[in-house]
Amino acid sequence: MAAAATMAAAARELVLRAGASDMEEEEGPLVRTQGCFSSRVLSDLLRRVVRVFRSHCSLESWTSPLMNSSWMKWMGVDLRHYSKQVELELQQIEQKSIRDYIQESENIASLHNQITACDAVLERMEQMLGAFQSDLSSISSEIRTLQEQSGAMNIRLRNRQAVRGKLGELVDGLVVPSALVTAILEAPVTEPRFLEQLQELDAKAAAVREQEARGTAACADVRGVLDRLRIKAVTKIREFILQKIYSFRKPMTNYQIPQTALLKYRFFYQFLLGNERATAKEIRDEYVETLSKIYLSYYRSYLGRLMKVQYEEVAEKDDLMGVEDTAKKGFFSKPSLRSRNTIFTLGTRGSVISPTELEAPILVPHTAQRGEQRYPFEALFRSQHYALLDNSCREYLFICEFFVVSGSAAHDLFHAVMGRTLNMTLKHLESYLTDCYDAIAVFLCIHIVLRFRNIAAKRDVPALDRYWEQVLALLWPRFELILEMNVQSVRSTDPQRLGGLDTRPHYITRRYAEFSSALVSINQTIPNERTMQLLGQLQVEVENFVLRVAAEFSSRKEQLVFLINNYDMMLGVLMERAADDSKEVESFQQLLNARTQEFIEELLCPPFGGLVAFVKEAEALIERGQAERLRGEEARVTQLIRGFGSSWKSSVESLSQDVMRSFTNFKNGTSIIQGALTQLIQLYHRFHRVLSQPQLRALPARAELINIHHLMVELKKHKPNF
Questions:
Q1: Which band of pLDDT confidence, cut at 50, 70 and 90, is reported for residue 296?
Q2: Which long-range contacts (CB under 8 A, 24 or more apart) does 401-404 make?
Q3: DSSP alpha helices (H): ranges in 403-464?
Q4: By three-state DSSP, how is residue 187 classified?
Q5: What is the pTM (predicted TM-score) of this model?
Q6: Strands, E, within 73-209: which ranges?
């Protein structure tokens, strides 16, 4: 039964897989006869089922051990009988399968009909898709055609737009509107609409010139109109600008006001420059001629009135550092302290180069004269050149902006306007410096020029660079000459011709101290190596002069007092203005220290000279290993001990009074007394060490020695308090 079931399942599977399609391929469509399949079709189908069943049975049953013939014989089974039985079973199964297929014939027929209907539907869909494909092909070709047409239309559109733009520009450039004609002919030049239409006219004239160069025939239609409008505009502009320039010439006129007004109409000159160069040159020449005369007249007058408020007493060729300080004889020889200009002292004169004073308002001469005010030359120089700097910067910027120039052209035009004024100023300065012997004033003028040059560079006005170089070329040689004259005057000074001498600071050294500190303080702002070299030469000559004068004193003590007073005075003045680490300060500090030490030794020598000599001799013997020779000095040592104990207080008192009388600087005197007392304590301490040697240890006079600490306490009482 299992085999039958297996065969039935295989048959059904075969029918489902190969029924309709295989029969259509081999036999064509199934043909129903009175509700059933034809016998030929059914028999063919059954044969296939049987083949499947046999193949299945052969795989599972025939190979079974039960079917083995030897085994079956052993079991007593007849194979023929068994074969017939199997054949019978197969026939029964076959009949049963046929009946099953006949029962399912309607379903199979229905399936066939459905498949046929599906084929019809698919055929119609195939036809529709084919039609759609053909439609798509036609649409694609139409799209390509449209794309080609669109590209061609775009090209034509761009070409037409380009032509329209060019043609529009051409037409706009050639057409002269009525508003332009009305404004150029009737409107005043100061009205904004005149300036607007003038710019339009300039643009149209430029466009017409450009088109004429290209051979455009339409330009001839508007050339006449534009020329008449251009002539009218040039005439009105020329009259307006010349009127403004002529207004500069009126007395007491502030020319900066109309100059500023001209900047509002700077396009007028640009229009003339592009359309009527002859008129533009006429206006520029007229401006140059007018302004050059105005500047020259103004500065000549201002400079003349400015020099009237200078100090009446100025340095002369005899006012040098080494010249003898004798009063001028005569009834009117005494100068007024109010108008006296210092020669070697800086005082407040250095404020002229301070940032606040450097760019302060210029001096007004008539106001100063009413107030009877007087000024040194450097103050007048600053006022004059600050006015020159301010006006030159304004003029240069106006020229660049109004006349549309730059670079070398701007420099040439500027010097055409300001050249005569600058030359006049240089000649005046050269004439003044010929008789100028005030080195501080000249040095301050140099630093004023250096600062004004920096200001001009910050304002981006290079037109004055050459002028500043010319001024410095006049000032530097004169400054060096005056400095060399002072050096020579100190070098050639004969101390014997200076009259009576004393140990106080000499007036020549005081002159040098004030003069050197002034130049050093000024030079610190903008250092100059040449100045330091000249000051070094002057310092050497002053040091030699001090030594020559000191040699005139008979005693070494007076010489040292003179040297210390002068060195201390020069050092004090220098330290007020110069830096502590400057070369001059260090040099005089070393000289002062050396002479002070020598003076202290000279000061201690009279009262304590024997003690000093013995200590030095004894220390030398001890150092050489000859201390035994000290045994013969017992009497000398005893005399020194008793002499020191009896006279040291009076000697110290006399020493202090002598220092107070000798030195004008109490601070320096205090330092010298302290140094002397300190050295005295050290000397007595060394004397104690010598007496502690075995050779002098048993000396009876050692009991009379003064205790070191007691001596220090007593000496502190003699410390002067100035």
A1: very high
A2: 401/263, 401/266, 402/262, 402/263, 402/266, 402/269, 403/269, 403/284, 404/266, 404/269, 404/270, 404/273
A3: 408-434, 439-458
A4: coil
A5: 0.68
A6: none
